[in-house]
Design a protein that fits this description.
With about 325 residues, the chain is an alpha+beta fold. Among the domains are: about 80-165, no CATH class; about 190-325. It is about 15% helix and about 25% strand. It has four helices and 13 strands. It comes from Nannocystis punicea.
Length: about 325
Amino acid sequence: MLRRPRRLLQLAPTCAAALVLLAAACTASSPGPAAQPAPKDSTHSTPASEDSSPSAPPPRDSPSATSAPKDSPPLANPPAAEQVRWWCTCYSRVGPTPTTACRQAEADCEGLERKARGGGSRSIVARSLTHACREIGAEHPGDVLGTREQWRPSERPGAWVSFGACLLPGPPDAGADDGGEPEEPPSILTRERLGELEIGLAADEVTRLLGAPVRRGRAEMSEATGSYVQQWSWPDRGLELTLDAADKRGPYALAAIRAVAPCALRTARGIGIGDLYKTVEAAYLADRDPEEEQDALSFVAGSVYSGVIFTFDAQREKVTEIFFGAAAE
């Protein structure tokens, strides 16, 4: 029993030496981890080869080079590319009155610009362009030019118009009006009449045609025009006339005509009280301004600043009123 332990003690030094040699051999054949190179700029890193080990995932707070995830909230201010693009210009309408017009198509705006820069049209004053077409970005022109209340839709789809001032910022464009005085095209009122009544007729000619008025109002100053106006009426003939003068004492001339039933007078194109809408449209369609907002029960030939306005009954079938003159100042 005493020999076996002694034999083990004799073998212990040999085994220990063998273990030391084996550890040294393992250390020489398996080098330790090499020093890691400094990380490269992630924007210039090259993709890993197929036999290389996958790279470590980026930290959670590191910026990503890809787009934001689909479930991220929308931007508070959408980029300009997402806004509606408008092309806007300023010129004068017949009246004359300063006008700002906006179109969604650049070509449509340039069409208005050419008319206002050149010979004008029946509703645009010649050489009245003040601001050439400019591009703006907004859901509605009134969001950046004045207020929405200052704008109204045009009959042309995708168009808005504002009367009374140019809402585009900055001074007029150099050379926009070619240096000449704007020339207002002839108003439809210069070639229209009701019976023998026409705008500009002297007061004594009016009484010669109709006799003395049944009712004659007092002369009062108009704040809109600075002139003195007086109302004359013949209820039994369905006529109410407005006469005006620069001085309170006159001379007065015919400035506006309003005709209702039982008026039997007709316009120069043969339209009278009781005529059908389609008859009016056929006679005056060429003088209907596409920029003029048309009320559901009216038809404007020329403009509300200088034109003939037909009003219809609730079914929009028959003419109930004919007005000559300026319905707006």
